[in-house]
């Protein structure tokens, strides 16, 4: 029996023999010497501000104490009762994944090619597809967008097309449409309208599940009415356009199955809930990650496929395979540094499912859950133009500030605050370096926001479970939808089909002659072209009707427009310079009224 055991064995009230008293004194001296030695070996914490940031001593690791622990342990107990052997449990969870895969693949067969009653393929349209190419893509007089009439085709639209909006201004007469669906007209629609948005407005397809119909090209049309139908306000246009179209609900001869998004959402949601409830291992993150990635890639927010293709499935498969592998590599790093610390030893499967998995789905379905936020792209240009964007950004920054303060307190309690302050200092330094690089613009995509903020959730608290899930979902949605888009983009790439903010031509007051035998004749002229400008382009009723260059006749030329005698409607004229083969910004619309007078 050791001395320590002897010491604790004897009651304190009893008298000790002399040899035991001596042993007790020796023991106290030895223990006192060891305590003093240990105290000397322990480093003293600094008493300055850094010492305060180091947190309390000893640190207080955060650990979730489950609510109703017996209830939350019931899924694990049920699994142990049904399948007591570990290999049988693993087999059951793998079987769940196989069932999900089979159901998922079988429901995606609706995207396979379909033929209509005339044995022609049904065309799959994207929500932003139109028959008239924007930004002068149709060429002078629309030569590249024929046929204008006497043609039709069956089409299929995906769901949620009523929510797809313009992100750059688009000319409709004197009006610049932006941040709204591009639908011009009622029953008969202008050729540059979104076909699927117009089909929803006409009641041919639904917004929730999409649908099929037949579009008919009817050629030139004038005086497009603007009405509000089925949640879409169409834009009026009081002049003519060379290409227009209408719809018929003619789907005879083929079956148009609506998108099974709701069914696939239920299947994927149930499978991830089962995995979360019945597995306490942090590695369950990986199958859940793949399921979420597949759901976004094929169902909830699939990327844009080839223009007017007979099937979008091949494009979606290609992009899914391309993006999943690098995303999964990043997911491994995320698990090692963030998710593992949060989920390991978490004996609260119900809370994990509600907070962490629920947040994961909220972030992954951000095109549904966050669609009410009036911020399309986090750029200075969009924040300046989009109504309500600045206020929404201020609210988001305020909310994030409150969340950051809470997370800082938890890191301080765990004694890890200094380490993570250093990490985020490096993040801020990297952002500052990116901002200082000339010739490119910093673009903070929502997948970048997820990656930047995820380290701040690497602890086991209930708020961290929710925040981490939302950020993981944002990362999945961003990569599955847009790929690893660069955080450094040139001005041209960031602008897309937006404005250059360039100089526009100064047009001399037109000479109008309304007494000709052929009708009205309007002559427009300009004095000269500035240095570096190659030519000039003219839009009439938003169709390019004239394009000339300085080595031909644009240096001091004129543009003549004839209006037939039997035409009496307003007409809109815009002018733009051409430089290096690109058409720069068009001027504001000048109006040639139906009575032959001009207003600028």
What does this structure look like?
Strand 15 and strand 16 form a beta hairpin. It contains 18 helices and 23 strands. It has four domains: 3-42; 123-248, LCCL-like domain (Ferric Hydroxamate Uptake Protein, Chain A, domain 1, Beta Complex), CATH 2.170.130; 269-305 and 319-494, no CATH class; 511-599, Immunoglobulins (Immunoglobulin-like). The longest helix is centred in the middle third of the chain and has 31 residues, at 313-343. The chain starts with a helix and ends with a strand. The strands form seven sheets. The protein has a six-stranded mixed β-sheet, covered by helices on one side. Strands 17, 18, 20, 21, 22 and 23 form a six-stranded antiparallel β-sheet that branches. The chain has a three-stranded antiparallel β-sheet with strand order 15-16-19, with no helix packed on it. The chain is α+β, with helices and mostly antiparallel strands.
């Amino acid at each position: 029996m050791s001395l320590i055991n002897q010491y604790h064995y004897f009651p304190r009230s009893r008298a000790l023999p002399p040899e035991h008293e001596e042993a007790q004194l020796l023991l106290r001296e030895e223990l006192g010497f060891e305590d003093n030695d240990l105290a000397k070996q322990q480093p003293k914490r600094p008493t300055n501000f850094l010492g305060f940031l180091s947190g309390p001593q000893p640190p207080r690791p955060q650990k979730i104490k489950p609510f109703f622990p017996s209830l939350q342990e019931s899924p694990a107990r049920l699994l142990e009762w049904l399948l007591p052997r570990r290999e049988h449990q693993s087999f059951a969870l793998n079987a769940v994944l196989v069932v999900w895969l089979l159901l998922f693949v079988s429901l995606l067969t609706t995207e396979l090619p379909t033929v209509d009653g005339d044995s022609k393929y049904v065309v799959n349209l994207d929500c932003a597809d139109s028959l008239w190419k924007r930004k002068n893509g149709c060429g002078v007089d629309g030569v590249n967008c024929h046929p204008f009439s006497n043609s039709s085709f069956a089409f299929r639209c995906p769901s949620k097309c009523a929510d797809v909006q313009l992100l750059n201004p688009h000319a409709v007469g004197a009006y610049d449409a932006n941040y709204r669906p591009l639908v011009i007209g009622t029953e008969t629609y202008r050729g540059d309208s979104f076909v699927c948005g117009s089909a929803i407005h006409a009641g041919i397809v639904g917004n929730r599940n999409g649908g099929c119909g037949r579009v008919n090209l009817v050629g030139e049309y004038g005086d497009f009415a603007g009405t509000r139908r089925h949640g879409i306000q169409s834009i009026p246009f009081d002049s003519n356009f060379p290409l227009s179209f209408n719809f018929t609900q003619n789907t005879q001869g083929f079956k148009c199955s609506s998108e099974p998004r709701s069914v696939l959402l239920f299947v994927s949601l149930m499978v991830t809930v089962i995995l979360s409830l019945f597995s306490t291992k942090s590695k369950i993150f990986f199958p859940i990650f793949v399921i979420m990635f597949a759901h976004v890639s094929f169902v909830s927010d699939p990327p844009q496929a080839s223009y007017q293709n007979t099937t979008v499935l091949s494009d979606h498969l290609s992009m899914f395979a391309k993006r999943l592998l690098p995303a999964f590599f990043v997911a491994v790093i995320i698990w090692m540094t963030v998710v593992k610390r949060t989920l390991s030893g978490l004996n609260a499967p119900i809370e994990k499912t509600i907070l962490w998995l629920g947040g994961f789905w909220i972030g992954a379905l951000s095109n549904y859950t966050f669609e009410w936020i009036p911020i399309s792209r986090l750029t200075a240009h969009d924040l300046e133009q989009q109504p309500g964007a600045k206020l929404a950004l201020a609210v988001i920054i305020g909310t994030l500030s409150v969340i950051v303060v809470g997370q800082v307190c938890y890191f301080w309690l765990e004694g890890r605050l200094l380490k993570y302050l250093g990490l985020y200092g490096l993040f801020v330094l990297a952002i500052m370096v990116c901002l200082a690089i000339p010739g490119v613009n910093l673009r903070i995509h929502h997948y970048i926001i997820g990656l930047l903020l995820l380290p701040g959730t690497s602890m086991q608290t209930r708020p961290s479970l929710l925040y981490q899930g939302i950020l993981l979902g944002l990362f999945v949605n961003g990569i599955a939808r847009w790929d690893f888009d660069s955080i450094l983009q040139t001005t041209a790439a960031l602008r897309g089909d937006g404005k250059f903010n360039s100089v526009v031509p100064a047009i001399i007051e037109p000479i109008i002659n309304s007494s000709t035998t052929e009708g009205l004749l309007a002559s427009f002229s300009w004095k000269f072209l500035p240095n570096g400008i190659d030519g000039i382009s003219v839009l009439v009723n938003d169709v390019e009707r004239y394009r000339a260059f300085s080595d031909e006749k644009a240096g001091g030329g004129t543009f003549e427009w004839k209006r037939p005698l039997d035409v009496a409607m307003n007409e809109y004229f815009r002018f733009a310079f051409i430089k290096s083969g690109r058409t720069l910004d068009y001027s504001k619309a000048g109006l040639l009224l139906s009575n032959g007078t001009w207003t600028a």
